[in-house]
Specification:
The chain is mainly alpha-helical. The protein is 77% helix and 0% strand. Helix 1 packs across helix 2 and helix 4 packs across helix 5. Pfam families: TetR_N.
C-alpha cells in the first residue's frame, strides 16, 4: 500500500515538473524566440535542473512538439465539433468559409496565437532532420484529424478530397503566416468577411479546376 502511494506521488511530481518545464519554455519561446532560448534558461525559469529537462524531453525540439500537441490539440477539439456538423445544401464554398472562420477565431486566442508565431519562427532555424520530424508531428497532430473531421462534409461537394485538403492546407498556412506572423493587418486594412469570402471563392475554383469531372 505504501509503495502504491509512493508511486502515485512520483507520477504526480513527474507530471508537475514536466508541466513547469513546458510553461517556462512557452514563455521564453514567446519572449526570446525558439533559437534564442537555451535549455539552461528553461531550467532556470522552471526552477528545475537542466538534467530533469532531458529526463522528460529528448531535446528542445521535443519540448516544442509537446507544446504544439497540448495547445493546438486543445483548440482542435472545438474546431472538429464545428466542422463535423453537416448542413443542408452544403457546398464547397460554405465548407471553406467555415474553415477560415474557425481558424481565425482560434488564432485570436492568446496562447494559440503565440504558439503559431513560435512554430513559424522555429522552422526557420531548425536543422533539416529535426525540421522534417517536427513538420511530420504537426501533420499528424493537426492535418490528419482535420481531414477525418471534414470527410463527412465532402460528400455533397463532389471534389477530390486529396486535392481539396492539399489546397486547404496551403491556404490556411499562408493565411496564418501573413496575418499572425507577419502581422500584415497593421499595414493593410481588409474586411475579414470580405477576405474570407474572396479566399473561399478562389480556393473553391482551384479545387474544382483540379478535380476530374
Amino acid at each position: 500500500m505504501k509503495e502504491a502511494k509512493t508511486g502515485r506521488k512520483h507520477d504526480r511530481n513527474a507530471q508537475e515538473s514536466r508541466q513547469l518545464i513546458l510553461e517556462a519554455a512557452f514563455s521564453l519561446f514567446a519572449e526570446k524566440g525558439f533559437h534564442g532560448t537555451t535549455t539552461k534558461a528553461i531550467a532556470r525559469q522552471a526552477g528545475v535542473s537542466e538534467g530533469l529537462i532531458f529526463h522528460h524531453f529528448e531535446n528542445k525540439t521535443a519540448i516544442l512538439g509537446a507544446l504544439v500537441q497540448g495547445i493546438v490539440g486543445s483548440n482542435l477539439d472545438v474546431v472538429m465539433k464545428s466542422l463535423i456538423a453537416q448542413r443542408e445544401g452544403d457546398d464547397l464554398e460554405a465548407i471553406l468559409k467555415d474553415v477560415f472562420d474557425l481558424f481565425e477565431r482560434s488564432a485570436r486566442e492568446g496562447r494559440l496565437r503565440d504558439m503559431i508565431r513560435i512554430v513559424f519562427n522555429s522552422l526557420m532555424t531548425l536543422p533539416d532532420d529535426e525540421k522534417q520530424r517536427f513538420v511530420r508531428q504537426i501533420h499528424d497532430t493537426l492535418w490528419i484529424p482535420l481531414t477525418e473531421a471534414m470527410t463527412p462534409r465532402m460528400k455533397n461537394a463532389s471534389v477530390d478530397p486529396y486535392i481539396f485538403f492539399r489546397i486547404i492546407q496551403g491556404s490556411i498556412m499562408g493565411y496564418i503566416l501573413f496575418q499572425e506572423v507577419l502581422e500584415w493587418k497593421k499595414f493593410v486594412q481588409l474586411d475579414p468577411a470580405q477576405y474570407r469570402d474572396t479566399m473561399a471563392s478562389i480556393m473553391a475554383a482551384a479545387v474544382r479546376e483540379k478535380t476530374p469531372s
